């Protein structure tokens, strides 16, 4: 059994769950890219892949993750996965998804390449399902890592094969999303992804920027804690850089020294 997840925190959560249930034991692969943001036009072609990589290079510049770009190779991960499924016909793949655009767009990107293995791929989509938190209260997780390890034992019962109909329709939906090539993708519900403008998160970000200079880290932390729909911190910092280029905010400090000492304030009109 091979498991696929779409965030590093989900890897750790699933590993812990495996310690409680040997039937879950298997290799865990992570798709590292976040296809909920950035260009995706002709994503399976060299030109489209390179355009996306160049965009990420700009976004991650001066960030704590700048050196991680070279170790993200989802194409190689899928290449090796396909080889493994081809060579071992008894191997089964489980794709784990939380109810968020990151996981769902990752699912679309991945499954569109795996139609040859229909019947051997299970999907576990925690779509608007209740679980118990550490205090015993019911909540509705949007990310796998929010679920207690023992609750994964309940989650595994949700596994179902990706249907032949889904293998026909979902890749077409992904092609449509890629053709729209918006910079932000939003999960409406179920697996419905809608395309949004690049400034989609700006309002949630700017509400925390004031006339007084504040630490960049404080603004990003406050925004992420209050945003009803989250995205990555690197994307938000990139947006602040873009807003600074537009003259809407002013960023003080040297980006080449990292985020730590940077401050941000609304620009004086």
Q: How would you summarize this macromolecular structure in one to three sentences?
A:
The protein has 269 residues and is α/β, with parallel strands linked by helices.
Written overview of the protein:
With 269 residues, the chain is an alpha/beta fold. It has helices at 8-18, 46-60, 74-87, 101-111, 152-155, 164-180, 202-206, 216-226, 233-245, and strands at residues 2-5, 27-30, 93-98, 121-126, 131-132, 138-139, 160-161, 184-189, 192-196, 214-215, 249-252, 263-266. The protein has a five-stranded mixed sheet, sandwiched between helices. It has a three-stranded antiparallel sheet with strand order 10-12-11. A two-stranded antiparallel sheet has the order 5-6. Strand 5 and strand 6 form a beta hairpin.
Q: What features would you highlight for this structure?
A:
alpha/beta; 2 domains; 38% helix; Arc Repressor Mutant, subunit A; 3-stranded antiparallel beta sheet; single chain; 5-stranded mixed beta sheet; 9 helices; 269 residues; 17% strand
Instruction: Indicate how many domains the architecture comprises.
Output: 2
Strand content: 15-25%
Strand order of the largest sheet: 2-1-3-4-7
Major beta-sheet overview:
5 strands, mixed
């Amino acid at each position: 059994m091979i498991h696929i997840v779409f965030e590093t925190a989900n890897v750790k959560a699933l590993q812990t769950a495996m310690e409680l249930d040997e039937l879950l034991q298997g290799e865990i692969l992570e798709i590292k890219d976040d296809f909920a943001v950035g260009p995706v036009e002709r994503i399976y072609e060299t030109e489209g892949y390179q355009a996306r990589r160049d965009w990420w290079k700009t976004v991650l510049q001066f960030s704590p993750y700048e050196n991680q770009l070279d170790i993200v190779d989802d194409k190689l991960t899928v290449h090796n996965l396909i080889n493994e499924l081809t060579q071992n016909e008894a191997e089964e793949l489980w794709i784990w998804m939380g109810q968020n655009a990151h996981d769902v767009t990752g699912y679309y990107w991945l499954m569109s390449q795996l139609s040859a293995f229909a019947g051997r791929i299970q999907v576990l989509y925690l779509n608007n399902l209740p679980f118990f938190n550490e205090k015993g209260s019911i909540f509705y997780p949007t990310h796998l890592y929010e679920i207690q390890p023992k609750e994964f034992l309940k989650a595994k019962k949700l596994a179902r094969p990706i249907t032949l109909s889904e293998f026909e329709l979902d890749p077409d939906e992904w092609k449509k999303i890629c053709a729209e090539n918006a910079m932000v993708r939003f999960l409406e519900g179920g697996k419905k992804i809608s395309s949004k403008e690049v400034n989609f998160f700006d309002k949630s970000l700017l509400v925390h920027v004031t006339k007084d200079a504040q630490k960049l880290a404080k603004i990003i932390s406050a925004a992420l804690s209050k945003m009803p729909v989250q995205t990555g911190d690197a994307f938000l910092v990139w947006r602040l850089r873009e807003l600074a280029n537009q003259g809407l905010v002013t960023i003080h400090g040297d980006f080449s020294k990292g985020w730590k000492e940077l401050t941000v304030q609304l620009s004086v009109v």
